[in-house]
Write a structure and sequence with these properties.
With 453 residues, this protein is α/β, with parallel strands linked by helices. It is built from 17 helices and 15 strands. It folds into two domains: 4-206, Spore Coat Polysaccharide Biosynthesis Protein SpsA, Chain A (Alpha-Beta Complex), CATH 3.90.550; 218-415, Spore Coat Polysaccharide Biosynthesis Protein SpsA, Chain A, CATH 3.90.550. Strand 9, helix 9 (261-267) and strand 10 form a beta-alpha-beta unit.
Length: 453
């Protein structure tokens, strides 16, 4: 029932609709970009963000707050979001049925002005909740329009049950007609209506930037450094993915390509988002050297070290900013997927996932990212002919945690296809063992190239 401190007032309340973040069952429209685990990860982040905003509102207003969920048990939800929260399942039916049930039960608790919100709108804040509840002193219905034709908030004051049942009937939930149909129904019922400022939802891959902008008022620029050498077969796909990001500078450092790599890169200058630039530099060959040439030219607060045959996921810039905001995280990387249907490569991906998450030790083909200042303080990328990424991660681990994004980059399968999965795996492990035993990286590089043929 209503808390003692709000008895005697006109009780106000808020309900959050959410889904427990089970991979493959939540934020499904984002799965093509982020994968099942990445979409569930974002659902978890967005729910926490929304609940934090509502907690802040509750602290100031003394209002009533409830979380209504699907996909879990009450104990799981409390363990996830906090023991201080009232939680209740949404129950069966479409969104209209579940909204009616939420308002009925909220009013039965003694609340007289009540708003229901989802978790898809990161710009929703405690001020918006307060404004909606204030409007309900004079209005029967308050709606927060979403830019996709739906709404991020519905607020009602106490009315007969049949009133809000009729309000939510016959609506094409999930379509761009939801707001219009609800307004038409409210007019038929003779309800007074107040609309709040429109806000954007995050439901589709192209909307991931909304979350990024809402979370970070001044988004740090990311410098994406890509060393290339005869990458004509791969660099086009790499650049097309990178240029989907926002507030980036992309620095491609060519090591003397003899194919059409340079020509392909030059064709992309001036493309991409308006907040993204691309430059082409040159240097002597050598991945570490090329990375460091790019680092000297970089202006971004954060740096992504990316191989020329590796494709980032949609929303990679949002993922980088989100992970590097966490305290204790000194760097990060993505999971790894190999661009091949061959089943032995699924074992390779499993091994990389175990090494990355279990040992906190990603390799360079997973796209390492960290602050430019930290990388400069470390002396840049270790100037080694081989194992430069391995040594960089070793140094980073001494300073803190290396986080792994729940989303994979996709790298070319050409090494494994050319030499075979077992041979590549065997060579890699021998190189790591030799390096740890103190064998010169120059000797290891010579040996590695001979074994590669």
């Amino acid at each position: 029932m209503i808390d003692a401190e709000v008895r005697g007032q006109t009780p106000v309340g808020a309900i959050v609709f959410t889904r427990y973040p089970v991979p493959g069952k939540t934020k499904t429209r984002l799965i093509p970009a982020l994968g099942p685990r990445g979409a569930a990860w974002l659902q978890e982040k967005m729910t926490r963000h929304t609940v934090d905003q509502l907690r802040a509102w509750r602290e100031k207003s003394g209002g009533w707050l409830q979380i209504r969920y699907v996909g879990a048990a009450a104990g799981q939800v409390r363990a996830w979001l906090g023991q201080d929260l009232r939680v209740r399942p949404q129950g069966p039916g479409d969104l209209g049925d579940r909204l009616v049930r939420a308002f009925q039960e909220g009013f039965a608790e003694g609340v007289e002005r009540l708003v229901v919100v989802g978790i898809d709108c990161p710009e929703l804040d405690e001020g918006t909740i307060t404004q909606a509840l204030e409007s309900l002193k004079e209005m029967d219905l308050v709606l927060g329009p979403a830019t996709d034709g739906g709404y991020y908030l519905m607020g009602l004051r106490t009315m007969p049950v049949e009133g809000f049942e009729r309000l939510c009937q016959g609506i094409d939930w999930g379509s761009d007609r939801v707001l219009r149909q609800t307004l038409e129904r409210s007019q038929e019922l003779g309800l007074t209506v107040q609309q709040l400022s429109p806000l954007s939802d995050v439901d589709h891959p192209e909307e991931l930037g909304v979350w990024d902008r809402a979370r970070c008022q001044s988004r740090p620029m990311i410098s994406v450094i890509i060393p290339v050498l005869n990458e004509a077969s791969e660099i086009r796909q790499t650049l097309e993915r990178v240029l989907t990001g926002e507030n980036l500078e992309v620095i491609v450092v060519d090591g003397g390509s003899q194919d059409k790599t340079v020509e392909i890169v030059q064709a992309y200058v001036g493309q991409g988002e308006s907040s993204t630039s691309l430059r082409l530099l040159s240097s002597p060959p050598g991945r570490a050297l090329q990375f460091n040439v790019g680092l000297q030219a970089a202006q971004g607060e954060w740096v992504l070290l990316l191989h020329g045959d590796t494709r980032v996921p949609r929303g990679f810039d949002m993922l980088i900013r989100e992970l590097l905001r966490d305290e204790g995280v000194v760097a990060g990387a993505f999971e790894l997927a190999v661009a091949s249907q061959a089943w032995p490569l699924r074992w390779v991906e499993w091994g990389v996932r175990w090494r990355s998450r279990g040992l906190g030790f990603p390799y360079g083909d997973q796209g390492l990212f960290l602050s430019r200042e930290r990388l400069v303080q470390l002396g840049g990328i270790p100037d080694l002919p081989l194992m430069e990424d391995f040594e960089l991660v070793r140094r980073l681990q001494r300073q803190g945690r290396v986080a792994i994004a729940p989303v994979a980059v996709v790298t070319s399968a050409r090494r494994w296809e050319g030499l075979g999965v077992l041979r590549v795996t065997w060579l890699n492990q021998l190189i790591v063992l030799g390096y740890l035993l103190g064998i010169s990286p120059k000797r290891l590089a010579q040996w590695y190239r001979r074994r590669q043929g």
